[in-house]
TrEMBL record:
Alphabetic keyword roster: Repeat, TPR repeat
InterPro entries membership: TPR-like_helical_dom_sf, TPR_2, TPR_rpt
PROSITE patterns linked to this entry: TPR
Ranges of Low complexity composition bias in the record: 47-56
Name recorded for this polypeptide: Uncharacterized protein
TPR repeats: 294-327
Keyword Cell division: no
Residue segments, region Disordered: 30-79
């Protein structure tokens, strides 16, 4: 009786996964069991082709029995790892939601050592298991590598809108305190551009919820977990939401600057994908669509500075001044300190 109950449980698990009728599911399970025991396989059922498994995780009949909601099925053989690339949509402590680049399929992957993986990364995954539960696809494995590769994400670049020539009116400061790169750019007016801002609103129940505002309110109340979830939901909705990347970095800057650096770096890369390598215009802070990108750039510079990568930080602050000479973010002061080789100080700058 125990063997029959186990067999029925395996058959029902397959029916739930594939939608097959009982008879067909039973045929496949019995054939898989015979093959795993070394018996001669029975002829395939004549009821049509077997529903395809996930494209990246196809298995033989002996290993195709997937775990049900309670865990791995008894008697299932371990499958060999399958390597694939995916875009990270959101991340938790032990799992992440990803989109497989080759198929567009989304699944939740459980893995260890995820601290270096952030939304917007492209990861190389080695998956050893996959299963379905309540209509969702899950996988288990490990991350072999993570990189910033915006073109591979498959998202369109943010739009740019020209606002015409704009004089570079910088706040008065001695010439010695200005980066050399900004002097040549002050000779003639440059075209001001405004970057497309992905609306920080998605549907929540029946009302549009501003998740950035919600995250800030939760942060002020000390609910850092709630703030993190709100921002993760926002960036999962659209990886191009630079405000979400900036505020994710701001949320962890004080405690985990190395994590903040990754959030800002991804936001900057998404913005640069829109600007292109030859961009020579202005992105004034006064045009609100530019603020998310400028926040990411400023946070990136501060994180580099705090982590001791001072020359890199100085170059980031210099670029901020090229893009926004009015300097509402006080990048000039940070640039001067970093250019002098001074270490980051909490009084000097925080996002």
């Amino acid at each position: 009786m125990t063997v029959k109950r186990d067999l029925k449980r395996i058959i029902r698990a397959r029916m739930a996964r594939t939608g097959e009728p009982f008879t067909k599911a039973r045929q496949h399970v019995l054939r898989a069991r015979r093959e795993s025991q070394g018996a001669t396989p029975a002829p395939p059922a004549a009821a049509g082709p077997e529903p395809s498994a996930e494209p990246q995780l196809e298995a033989t009949a002996a290993t195709a029995v997937m775990s049900d909601a309670s865990g791995p099925t008894r008697g299932a053989q371990p499958r060999s790892a399958v390597v694939l690339e995916a875009a990270v949509l959101r991340r938790g402590a032990r799992s992440m939601r990803v989109r497989v680049l080759s198929t567009g399929e989304e699944l939740t992957v459980r893995a260890r050592e995820l601290w270096h993986v952030m939304p917007g990364h492209v990861v190389t995954l080695s998956l050893v298991r996959q299963w379905r539960q309540r209509g969702h696809v899950y996988g288990a494995g490990e991350v072999q590598g993570a990189r910033v590769d915006v073109p591979a994400l498959g998202v369109p670049p943010l739009g740019l809108q020209a606002h015409g020539p704009l004089a570079t009116e910088e706040r008065s400061s001695p010439a010695s305190e200005k980066p050399r790169a900004t002097h040549a750019l002050e000779v003639a007016p440059r075209t001001a551009w405004e970057m497309q801002e992905v609306p920080p609103r998605i549907e929540a129940s029946d009302d549009a919820s501003d998740l950035v505002l919600e995250s800030l309110e939760r942060k002020q109340r000390g609910d850092f977990t709630g703030a993190l979830r709100a921002l993760m939901a926002l960036v999962a909705h659209d990886l191009r939401c630079l405000d979400a990347h900036a505020h994710l970095g701001n949320l962890v800057f004080q405690s985990y600057p190395e994590h903040a650096l990754l959030h800002y770096e991804i936001g900057v890369a998404i913005g640069d994908f829109a600007l292109g390598p030859d961009f020579a215009g202005l992105l004034p802070w006064s045009l609100e669509g530019n603020r998310p990108f400028l926040r990411c750039l400023h946070g990136w510079g501060l994180s580099l500075w705090r982590l001791g990568r001072i020359p890199e930080a100085a170059r980031v602050f210099e670029r901020l001044l090229q893009l926004n000479p009015a300097d509402e973010q006080q990048a000039r002061r940070c640039w001067a300190q970093a250019q002098a080789g001074n270490a980051w100080d909490a009084d000097e700058g925080a996002p």
